[in-house]
Amino acid sequence: MLRAEPRTGRRVAAIDGLRCLSGEAGECQLCYLRCPLRDGAMVLDGGRPTIVASACDGCGVCVAACRTVNDLGAIQLVLEPVTI
Ligand code: SF4
Ligand code: SF4
User: Fold this and answer.
1) Looking at the 3D structure of the chain, how many domains does it have?
2) Which stretch of 60-64, 67-71, 79-83 has the lowest confidence by average pLDDT?
3) Any domain includes 24
4) Quick one: which ligand is closest to 41's CA?
5) 44 lies in which domain range?
6) Spacing, Cα 5 to ligand 2 middle (Å)
7) Which comes out higher in pLDDT, residue 4 or 65?
8) Which of 2, 11, 27, 67 shows its CA 20 to 30 Å from the CA of 75?
9) Which residues touch 39 (CB under 8 Å, ≥6 apart)?
10) In CATH, what number is assigned to the domain containing residue 22?
11) How many angstroms separate the alpha carbon of residue 50 from the centre of ligand 2?
């Protein structure tokens, strides 16, 4: 039986580490620098931008920023299921 995908919930950013151009040396930090909630929703782990989903408001600024430097687009907004 097919399970329906959740249709409600918060949209938060998620980084695909395999597509991201950054590493421990912080080769790219554009999404981090553009995030309106920098050092809250987006932090640096070593030099690499990392999303704190609980603080992300899903504005999508980082998604657009990433697209300007990475044709693959390493960030997506994903639905975070609501847990009750
Ligand atoms: S979606 Fe917005 S708040 Fe969340 S990490 Fe990206 S830029 Fe920051
Ligand atoms: S802008 Fe994209 S490629 Fe650059 S650090 Fe962020 S997720 Fe990685």
Assistant:
1) 1
2) 79-83
3) yes
4) 1
5) 10-80
6) 27
7) 65
8) 2
9) none
10) 3.30.70.20
11) 9
